[in-house]
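Hi R.,

Here's the chain you asked about this morning:
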Amino acid sequence: MARNMSTSLLGEYLQRALRVEVDNRHTITQPEHISPELLHDCHHLMQKVLSAFRHKIQLPWSIREYSRRLTACQNVRSAKLEADLMKDFRPLTSGALQLIKTPCIVVDSEDNIVLWYLPDALTI
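And the predicted structure, written out as tokens:
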């Protein structure tokens, strides 16, 4: 029970801390019952999330529409279906792919997050 309460309190604190960072407000008081090491790791993760939010890659199509077009047995290849999907849901690039080394999010045309990329977010 104490662990769940601590997890909940830590989550609430991090939500407030993230909002402070996004809104450029002053700092908030850190909870006393959370170890400094855990807070450090959480702030490291929060910085990665913030960095990803600041590096948005936009898809020109909706993931909702894409998922509607997939068949129940999408693992069965159909040349026509694949060609239709490729025509209507073009990749971001043709040719050589760009190597992304920094945190980012990929969003669809409706601003839904499709992918999070958070390199080095978890420390050991």
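The chain has a mean pLDDT of 81.

Let me know if you need anything else.
M.
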